[in-house]
Amino acid sequence: MQxxxxxxxxxxxxxxxxxxxxxxxxxxxxxELRGFCQKAVSQQEDFRVFRSHPIARVFFENASExxxxxxxxAIQSRFPELYADLSRLRQCDSLGSPIPFRYPGAGxxxxxxxxxxxxxxxxxxxxxxxxxxxxxxxxAGFGGFAKVIADLFPKAKLTLVDTKENVLLARRFLEALHxxxxxxxxxxxxxxxxxxxVLSDYAFS
Length: 205
Description:
Layout: H1 2-20, H2 31-42, H3 44-48, H4 54-59, H5 65-78, H6 80-83, H7 86-89, E1 101-103, E2 107-109, H8 111-127, E3 134-138, H9 144-152, E4 157-162, H10 164-176, E5 182-186, E6 197-199, H11 201-204
């Protein structure tokens, strides 16, 4: 009963936030999101559960259970090597207390993690291995998409770009998971480089 009450409360909060930002206000102009990221970085307890917070459910963790199911089916049918590697890729869900769903044959997963795995499979299918590539990721989020890419392509060089607050959160998340091939920069501190590939999670949404 307590779990049902928690989920109901969370859904109400998410719907309220979605209605609040339906006017299309830019993510990087949102002070609530910035404050949320700052608190998650500076407070250990907030970092421990940040992915289940209503703000995270709007901006970072908004794929539905059904989307996760569709992505899992695509992974299983089109990318069997990734399906066989799901236990390792599940590590993305080991931090931040995301709200998972139980999927037959795969176990508990955040739908967004399954979406990122599917996208990574599609990138490899179209472009080949990303190992050795210099990749810039526009929109760091909390670092979840970068974590999946880094796990699958450990020899790729990842550069994440976002607002200062998002960058701090992504850096803490990736460092806690011992990701060595990713760097995070704010919009104004990005060094000039030549990129092999530009990725944006929002472009896949």
